[in-house]
Write a structure and sequence with these properties.
By secondary structure, the protein is mainly alpha-helical. It is built from eight helices and no strands. Helix content is 58%, strand content 0%.
């Protein structure tokens, strides 16, 4: 399957720099990290849920949005700015750099902007993306579970399909 934009993002200098910076900033973080493993998990879980529920999902859009959705964490840690809006701005720049078409770029940026809010309609790609972001964590193995502010009933304790 062609993941044209997503593969170009992986090779993009701005993306790589941001991801490296994020890795440095999260080195001492005891809560969930936001490295490549998380980003790819969100993409794969989104595709699985969409397949199960018959929700249309263009893989290149899903993978691109997943790769970019937490990139704004750099500004959140360093400047105290919200990572959804900051990430959307950086994503716009990266998508321009990789030559992504306008319609596709708008959808990807929209998913990044809404990834922290669960008020999207439940049968939309945006709602599934939100859900996949949460389900990508295995809370029962987390060393910081006693200090985590996620409500217990929302934590991923068991594997689910
Ligand atoms: Fe996020
Ligand atoms: Fe995330």
């Amino acid at each position: 399957m062609m993941l044209e934009t997503a593969n170009k993002i992986l090779e993009n200098d701005t993306f790589r720099r941001k991801l490296e910076e994020l890795e440095r900033l999260e080195k001492e973080r005891k809560f969930c990290g936001h490295g490549l493993e998380h980003l790819l998990s969100v993409a794969r879980i989104t595709m699985l849920i969409c397949g199960e529920r018959g929700i249309a999902a263009e893989p290149d859009i899903v993978y691109s949005a997943a790769l970019l959705h937490d990139i704004g964490r750099v500004e959140e840690y360093t400047l105290g700015l919200p990572h959804d809006t900051e990430g959307a701005e950086t994503a716009e720049q990266i998508l321009h750099e990789v030559g992504c078409g306008k319609r596709k770029a708008e959808r990807i940026i929209g998913m990044i902007r809404s990834h922290r809010s669960n008020d999207c309609k439940s049968d939309t790609l945006e709602a599934v993306f939100y859900e996949a972001d949460k389900r990508s964590r295995m809370c029962s193995f987390c060393k910081a579970q006693d200090e985590c502010n996620w409500p217990y009933e929302k934590r991923n304790v068991n594997l689910e399909v």
